[in-house]
C-alpha cells in the first residue's frame, strides 16, 4: 500500500462524519490503483476544464477493511467533486436523482469519466447501496460496455434518457429498445467501432458523453 | 437457494465441544515458535515472510495465530511473526478465521470462473484444512464468523456480476454439521458486507459496513435479527463479547486509522501504524496487519 492525501495534487477530503471538512486525510491504495487514479483525475480535469480546475474531491473510502476490492486497496467511493469556478457534482446528495436535468447530466459526466478508467463503476442507478456515491474499482478490466452487466446497462439507459429523451426503463435489462437507443447515441456521437469489445472505443465514447454532460448539451 | 453439501464435520461434536485443544502443541513441534506470542507492539515482529493480507485471529493453546496470504499461498502466522505453510486452501479467498474447541474454522469462498462459491473450512491444527461446506449452487462468499462453545454462525452475501453484495446469507454449525440458515430482519443489510460477528450464550451480534460506517444487529437465535447501533466512519472487523460489553476493533473509513471501542460506548485510536488493518481482538489484546507483519496492542 502507498499513502496519499492528494491525487496528482488534488486534495481528497472525507465528509461522512463532518460535512464540509477540509482536514487533509491520509488514504491508502495500491501503487497500481493510485496510478490509475492519476489518469482518472487528469481525464476529469481536461474534460471539465470549462468549470475551472478541480479544487478538491471528497471520498467515502478507498482501502476499507472489508472483503472485496476495497479490502485490497483497489477501489474508490466518490462522494463529491468541487471545481474552482464553484460548480459541484455531488453523488453524496444523490445528484443522479436530481429534479434538475443539468445536475443529472453532470453526474453522468463524472460517472462516464470513471468508466473511462474503471470497468466496474457502480452508481446511483445500480442499487440503493450506491445511491450516495460512485464506486470505481479494479475488477474485470479493461473498461468496456458489457450488455449483461446491470451496472453498464443501467448507465446506458440513464444516459440515453438524459441526453436523448429515450424514455427507457432503467431496469438493467439490455433489450431491443436499449439497443436502438444505444445505436442512436453512437451515431450522434460519431462513435466508430464496437464499445462492447474494444476498450478504446468505449473510452472515447465516454469522453464524448462527459463533454456533453459537463456542457449540459443533448446529443 | 440450493442446499449445501453436508459432509460430517471434521470437528466432531466431542472435539468441537471439548475443552482441550491440541493445535498449539501441534504447531509448536514444527517450525513455528509458538511459545512467545507477542505481548506488545514492539515485540511482535520477527524474521518471517511478509504477508499481503491476513484474516481473523484464533487462540490455540497459549498462542494467537492468524491466516495470512503471501507469495507462497496461505500460511499460519503466529503473533510473533513466524509462519508455516498450510494445505487445503489452494484457490481459497479466506475472509475470516476463528478458533473453536478442538480446532479452527475459516470461512470465505473458492473461485469458480467468474463466480465464487461460499465455503467453510475446518482444521484441527491450523495447518491442514479441509472444506466442510461448499455452497456450490450459489455465487457469493462468507465474510464473518462467530464461534460459541456448542455452535458457530457464518454470515455472508450472494454477489452480483460486479461482485457487490445483493442478499444476506448465513451458514450455521449445529448438531455436528453445517447448513444454510434462514435470516430474518437483516434485509436492510442485503447490499452491505458483513465484516464481523460474535456470540455468547445470550445470542449473536453481527456488524455490516455501508458507505458511511458500521451497522450492528443482534439476534437471540441467529435467525431473527434486530438492528441496533451504528458507528459512522468505522469499519468494524472483529467483535468479542466481554464482561464489560461487546469490544470491537476496526479501521476508520476516512483514512485508515486503527480504532477500538465497546459497542454503545464511543471509540478511541489504537497506537499502531497508520496503515495497520484490524484482524481481531482476544481478551485485552488486539491484532493488526501492518507492513505485512502482525502486531498487537492492548485495548
Ligand atoms: Zn465502494
TrEMBL record, chain A:
Any one Pfam family match given in the protein's UniProt record, by short name: Extensin-like_C
Organism, scientific name: Actinophytocola xinjiangensis
Domain Extensin-like C-terminal: 65-138
Origin superkingdom: Bacteria
Protein name: Extensin-like C-terminal domain-containing protein
Record InterPro entries: Extensin-like_C (IPR009683)
TrEMBL record, chain B:
Lineage: superkingdom: Bacteria
Protein name: Uncharacterized protein
Organism: Actinophytocola xinjiangensis
Amino acid at each position: 500500500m502507498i499513502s496519499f492525501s492528494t491525487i496528482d495534487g488534488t486534495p481528497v477530503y472525507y465528509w461522512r462524519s463532518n460535512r464540509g471538512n477540509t482536514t487533509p486525510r491520509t488514504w491508502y491504495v495500491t501503487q497500481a490503483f493510485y496510478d490509475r487514479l492519476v489518469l482518472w483525475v487528469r481525464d476529469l480535469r481536461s474534460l471539465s476544464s470549462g468549470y475551472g480546475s478541480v479544487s478538491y474531491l471528497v471520498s467515502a473510502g478507498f482501502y476499507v477493511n472489508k472483503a472485496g476490492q476495497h479490502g485490497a486497496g483497489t477501489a474508490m467511493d466518490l462522494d463529491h467533486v468541487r471545481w474552482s469556478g464553484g460548480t459541484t457534482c455531488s453523488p453524496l446528495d444523490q445528484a443522479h436523482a436530481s429534479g434538475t436535468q443539468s445536475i443529472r447530466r453532470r453526474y453522468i459526466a463524472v460517472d462516464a469519466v470513471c468508466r473511462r478508467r474503471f470497468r466496474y463503476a457502480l452508481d446511483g442507478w445500480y442499487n440503493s447501496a450506491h445511491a450516495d456515491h460512485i464506486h470505481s474499482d479494479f475488477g474485470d478490466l479493461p473498461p468496456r460496455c458489457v450488455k449483461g452487466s446491470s451496472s453498464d446497462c443501467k448507465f446506458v439507459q440513464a444516459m440515453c434518457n438524459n441526453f436523448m429523451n429515450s424514455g427507457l426503463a432503467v431496469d438493467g435489462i439490455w433489450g431491443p429498445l436499449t439497443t436502438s437507443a444505444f445505436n442512436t447515441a453512437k451515431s450522434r456521437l460519431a462513435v466508430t467501432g464496437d464499445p462492447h469489445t474494444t476498450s478504446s472505443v468505449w473510452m472515447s465514447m465516454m469522453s464524448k458523453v462527459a463533454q456533453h454532460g459537463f456542457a449540459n448539451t443533448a446529443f | 437457494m440450493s442446499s449445501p453439501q453436508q459432509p460430517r464435520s471434521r470437528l466432531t461434536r466431542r472435539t468441537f465441544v471439548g475443552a482441550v485443544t491440541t493445535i498449539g502443541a501441534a504447531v509448536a513441534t514444527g517450525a513455528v515458535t509458538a511459545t512467545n506470542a507477542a505481548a506488545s507492539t514492539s515485540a511482535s515482529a520477527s524474521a518471517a515472510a511478509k504477508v499481503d493480507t491476513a484474516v481473523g485471529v484464533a487462540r490455540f493453546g497459549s498462542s494467537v495465530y492468524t491466516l495470512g496470504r503471501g507469495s507462497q499461498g496461505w500460511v499460519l502466522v503466529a503473533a510473533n511473526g513466524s509462519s508455516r505453510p498450510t494445505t487445503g486452501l489452494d484457490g481459497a479467498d479466506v475472509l475470516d478465521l476463528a478458533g473453536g474447541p478442538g480446532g479452527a474454522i475459516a470461512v470465505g469462498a473458492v473461485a469458480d470462473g467468474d463466480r465464487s462459491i461460499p465455503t467453510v473450512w475446518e482444521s484441527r491444527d491450523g495447518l491442514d484444512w479441509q472444506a466442510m461446506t461448499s455452497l456450490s449452487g450459489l455465487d457469493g462468499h462468507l465474510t464473518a464468523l462467530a464461534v460459541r462453545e456448542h455452535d458457530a454462525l457464518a454470515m455472508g452475501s450472494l454477489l452480483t456480476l460486479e461482485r457487490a453484495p445483493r442478499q444476506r446469507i448465513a451458514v450455521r454449525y449445529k448438531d455436528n454439521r453445517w447448513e444454510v440458515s434462514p435470516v430474518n430482519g437483516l434485509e436492510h443489510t442485503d447490499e452491505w458486507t458483513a465484516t464481523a460477528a460474535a456470540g455468547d450464550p445470550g445470542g449473536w451480534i453481527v456488524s455490516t459496513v455501508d458507505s458511511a460506517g458500521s451497522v450492528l444487529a443482534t439476534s437471540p437465535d441467529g435467525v431473527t435479527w434486530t438492528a441496533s447501533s451504528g458507528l459512522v466512519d468505522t469499519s468494524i472487523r472483529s467483535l468479542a463479547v466481554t464482561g464489560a460489553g461487546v469490544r470491537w476493533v476496526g479501521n476508520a473509513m476516512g483514512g485508515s486509522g486503527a480504532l477500538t471501542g465497546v459497542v454503545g460506548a464511543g471509540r478511541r485510536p489504537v497506537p499502531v501504524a497508520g496503515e495497520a488493518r484490524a484482524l481481531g481482538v482476544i481478551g485485552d489484546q488486539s491484532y493488526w496487519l501492518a507492513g505485512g507483519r502482525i502486531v498487537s496492542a492492548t485495548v
